Amino acid sequence: MYSILDENGLCNYYDLNEVAGISQKMKSKQEYAFLDDAETINRLISYADDTQTKVLFYIPQIHCSSCLWLLEKLHLLNDGILSSRVDFLKKEVQVAFDQTRVSLREVVEILAMIGYAPHIQLNDLETGNKPVTEKSLYYKLGLAGFAFGNIMLLSFPEYLGLGTPAEGTFHSFFGFVNLALILPVVLYSGQDYLRSAWQGLKQRHLNIDVPVSLGILALFFRSTYEILSQTGAGYMDSLAGLIFFLLIGKWFQQTTYARIAFDRDFKSYFPIACTVLVDGLEKQVTLDKLEQGDLVQIRHGELIPADALLVRGKAKIDYSFVTGEAALIEKGIGDRLFAGGRQMGGIIEISVTKKVSNSYLTQLWNDHAFTKANEKGKANVIADRVAAFFTWAILIIASITLFYWLPRDVAIAVNAFTAVLIVACPCAVALSIPFTFGNVVRIFARKGIYFKNVQVIEALAQISHVVFDKTGTITNVQSAQLKYDGSTLSDDEKSLVYSLARHSNHPLSRQIETHLCAFQALPVYDFQEVKGKGISGTIDGHFIRIGSQQFINDSVSATESKKQSVYIEIDHAIKGSFLQENEYRHGLSGVLSKIQKWGHISLLSGDHDAEKENLLPLFGGSSGLHFKQRPEQKLEHIKHLQEDFHQIAMIGDGLNDAGALSQSNVGIVITEDTSNFTPACDVIMDAKHFEKLPKLFSFSRLSIKLVYAAYLIALIYNIVGLSFAVRGALSPVIAAILMPLSSVSIVLFGVGASTYFAYRKGLF
For site-directed labelling of 441, which of 154, 561, 641, 754 has its Cα 20 to 30 A away? Predict the structure, then answer.
């Protein structure tokens, strides 16, 4: 290991942690021979093209900053490795490599060589399961509980005050047995606290595990001294109880968080569906029901939901969500397509080769490239400040308590010192945000409203201005009516228009498709779409264009067009136009009036102002209405509002609003039954629950208040607990019970209160 690092100038690895890495036995070269199999490789990789291949490994050995540092320097060990990114919490490493210079097997062997062999089980690939790394917690908890019970049993002579010479012999014997029992508890069950405290001290940072570890060590060394010197029985029962109850608190937190962590159940994560062809008929199927072998139809702008083979059409795939590069990659029949790519041509049909995993789409959604550089919310700032201040305050109080009691009573001094270190618990402050906000995220997910992460809640609570798109956002595209005005279209011409319209995912194109669904679909060649303007293509030798009047006729300015019309041009001759009669979403008036009670609202629409008169009373005047806005103009308008110190929530359909959604403080996408998924947004909302939009903001503000209430409860608990501890009126074992109990109470308060108010507000 040292030779490899030394040869590549990576010995800084040892500077980060004195005990860096995991001891390992070199694996046989043949152990990874199965990675030479093409089918196995295809099952493992998440993306591949002519320049790079991406694979995600689960590496359970990741445990410290040295691991992270070394694993992100893999490109220095082999020129064929392009990059590597570590998710420390999930213990995952995403490696991008050039398959012409290094094979997947060689990448795995390099990882194994430096002590980070990936955990690869092919049966896990279908289910997405990972090995349960938390088993060690149960082992530690079981050992601590076993020792706690037996030490209490062996301490009965002490509890009963037995003191005859014969019984004194038993006292001594039981003391040594207790010492033997406590050693594995401290060294194994309590190692996480001791290691964390030591790592923090080495980095010159006092984390919350420092006072806890001091309490453990104070009890251990004081008890060991009393037993070995025969001056007392020690406090081994209190020490075993302390570690046991601390681990119970940790188990409770992990169990509760696992239940509310909605992103771990990808089957209900996104409200996106895809179009599956069954016996030639189109059927909308949610992604969790997509099976291997299903034939899926992908329109222009839609996301490829799963790894698949192209069986029909010409694919022009934008893999920028996966690789960060916006260049289109053309694929032919039989070529492999990867999940996360977006089709930028006409309709294609793909055959699914690997069951969909929304966890991969989640990974794209949370990619650093789409993360907004928002400042931390007030609740998070308070939590950070409390954590930094708390440890110092507790150490000072504990030291004063110790020096006050030492001249008076050594036993009380040790008990009081230990009780202060143990009973004070800033964990409640740290736990209130993930558990309260996590439960809020879970509650909204049940109503078809999906958050990117819990930080979005604080951003929503600070919104002062809500900006709406029109078509597909405040209008219900599915129930809108179309009226045709122009020369009569023959059946052949209607078939041409229908064939072109069905290739686009824009709401107006989908309306035309529905309106002309009785006609035959023909192959489309040279399909193109100009964002916010229109589409074109060649069908059966005819050149067709569908779009705005300005798109069809360049001589017409944007101000000359007065109606919300979609024009039809066949072989350079304008045939007529479809006029859309919009139907606004149910409850729109109530949604807007509720938002206006606490903030500003405005409209940014790419459509014409034909419906301005209808929208004036809803938006409270013309100053907030902006029509004929191109995507870049929407983006600039959002920037202008932010310069005036507004916190902006942009609400759109995710098609032409990506820039505005990304620029806003919170981007919300309203989706129907199509895959309008975009990493630029922070919230995906099922259109059926549009009326709940005001509750999205109001309940977010309430959630912040619940976090502050949890902070107040934690403060009261610590004041009361410390007042008893400094007087020596609180034994270490009682303090050990109260510390995790406080964490449990904060967790129950956060989850319980948010659930209760959700019922009150009709979110269940």
Answer: 641
CB 728 within 8 A of CB 404: no
DSSP letters for 174-226: HHHHHHHHHHHIIIIITHHHHHHHHHHHHTT---THHHHHHHHHHHHHHHHHH
Pick 544 or 446 by higher pLDDT: 544
**Nearest residue to 562 (alpha-carbon basis) of 548, 573, 572:** 548
Across residues 3-23, what is the average pLDDT? 63
The CATH code belonging to domain 481-581 is 3.40.1110.10
| Tokens representing residue 315 in the block | 């694919």
* Spatial distance between the Cα atoms of 718 and 428, rounded to a whole number of angstroms: 10
What is the pLDDT at residue 52? 87
CA distance 714 to 706: 12
Indicate if 481-581 has the same CATH topology as 2-127.
no
Secondary structure string (H, E, C) spanning 586-626 = CCHHHHHHHHHCCCEEEEECCCCHHHHHHHHHHHCCHHHEE
In 3D, which of 124, 153, 148, 8 has the Cα closest to residue 70?
A: 8
**3-state DSSP call for residue 413?**
helix
- Highest-confidence range of 194-203, 370-379, 436-445, by mean pLDDT? 436-445
Q: Are 307 and 353 in contact (CB under 8 A)?
A: yes
pLDDT attached to residue 761: 86
| Fold of the domain spanning 2-127 | Alpha-Beta Plaits (3.30.70)
Residue matched to tokens 């606490």 = 598
More confident residue, 661 or 264: 661
In whole angstroms, give the CA distance from residue 371 to residue 368. Answer: 5
Query: Look-up: residue for tokens 């209760």?
Result: 756
Indicate yes or no: pTM above 0.85: no
Cβ burial, residue 493 (10 Å; 0-12/13-18/19+): middle
In CATH, what is the architecture of 270-365?
Distorted Sandwich (2.70)
Domains of the chain by residue range: 2-127, 135-261+376-421+737-747, 270-365, 481-581
Contact 417, 407 (CB under 8 A): no
What is the sign, positive or negative, of the torsion defined by CA atoms of 292, 293, 295, 301?
positive
Measured between alpha carbons, how far is 655 from 505 in angstroms, rounded to an integer?
8
* Dist CA 580 CA 747 (whole Å): 51
Stronger pLDDT, 647 or 656, i.e. the higher one = 647
pLDDT above 50: residue 290? yes
Token digits for 685?
Answer: 């909302």
More confident residue, 147 or 417: 147
What is the rounded CA–CA span in Å between residue 256 and residue 44?
31
Hey, is 101 helix, strand or coil?
Answer: coil
- Using one digit for the tens of pLDDT, what is the confidence trace for 198-252? 876 776 666 667 777 877 887 788 788 888 888 777 778 878 887 887 788 778 6
For Cα atoms 548, 549, 552, give the angle at the middle one, nearest 5 degrees. Answer: 90
CB 578 within 8 A of CB 482: yes
